[in-house]
Amino acid sequence: MLKIVEVGPRDGLQNETAVVPPEVKVDFVNALSLSGVGEIEVSAFVSPRWVPQLADAEEVFRKIVRKEGVVYSALVPNEKGLERAVAAKVDKVSLFTAASESFNLKNINTSIAGSIERFLPVAKGAHEAGLALRGYVSTAFWCPFEGRIPPAAVIGVVERLVDVGVDEVSISDTIGKASPDEVGMLLDRLLPSIPADRIAVHFHDTYGRGVANVLASWSYGIRIFDASAGGLGGCPYAPGATGNVATEAVVRALESKGEAVGVDLEQLARARRLLDPFLADDRRRLPRDGSLACATCEFSQGDVCCRRRSV
To answer: In the chain, N or C terminus with fewer CB closer than 10 Å?
Structure first.
């Protein structure tokens, strides 16, 4: 079963400088719930000191209208975060580490081994609470500090996460530098030991290859795709990382391959426009001609940019 994981409310907003009021986030999640996506990553139960944009996680979870069949998930860094998530009645929690030691130290102030050690009580608590558990592997292709990450390093981290007890692993191209060939090289090594239905992919579009990488993953049998409405997002600990691949572009690309994605692009656009008054104007860049990112625009008539700017 193909699934779109909409990460805009969490990964999309955590790197925005503008303050988006909690009531707007609630409206955003509610609108996304009507779009047909299978999962919405609503927020993260992290320290407000480190990610102030998500300090309202409890309030947002308390006020959203949950639609039957949609999974409402959140990122958690530790046992305290898990306690908050359980109290907020999340459906699924996500842990996060990286395939790069340098990135881990910058991001969560510990080594890869240290992050796995932290996961043990969180994974145990999540399973006891009956929650599904995801593990993110950041910098799975390139690291802003170490450069190219070899597939063997990624596979080692994925296998350790599976041993911890995660149900699903999201392979993340944190700085958006991966190519379809590099995606294929990793999946060639990974899929013999980890079933495709337990792997998600999370691409950023820094170099304009996000959609191509989605399609490369799809050709390998991957059917869980993270994406962000309007291409929102980035990473505060990854210099140069721009937005996630746009949900609208991913939907169109998969439909072009004959997939029945079941996501309403007009509803996605309505959801995204709720945020426009709060985001900087320079975030609304016109895409290159021929880009499937035109699917994010209310004026879209196909895959060629008409040079009109959505407002």
So the answer is: N
Residue 288 has pLDDT above 50, yes or no: no
The reported pLDDT for the residue numbered 1 is: 86
The residues near 294 (Cβ < 8 Å, ≥ 6 apart) are 287, 300, 302, 303, 304, 305, 306
Residue 56 has what pLDDT?
Answer: 97
Q: What are 98's strand-pairing partners?
A: 138
Model-level pTM?
0.89
SS3 letters across 279-310: CCHHHCCCCCCCCHHHHHCCCCCCCCCCCCCC
Closest CA to 8 of 304, 246, 269, 295: 246
Tell me which residues are annotated as active site: 235
What value does the mean pLDDT take over residues 84-95?
98
The torsion defined by the Cα of 43, 45, 48 and 54, in degrees rounded to 10, comes to: 10
For the segment 185-225, what is each residue's pLDDT rounded down to a tens digit? 999 999 999 999 999 999 999 888 999 999 999 999 999 99
Torsion over CA: 307, 261, 36, 9 (sign): negative
What distance lies between CA 78 and its chain's CA centroid?
19
Paired with 226 in beta bridges are 5, 202
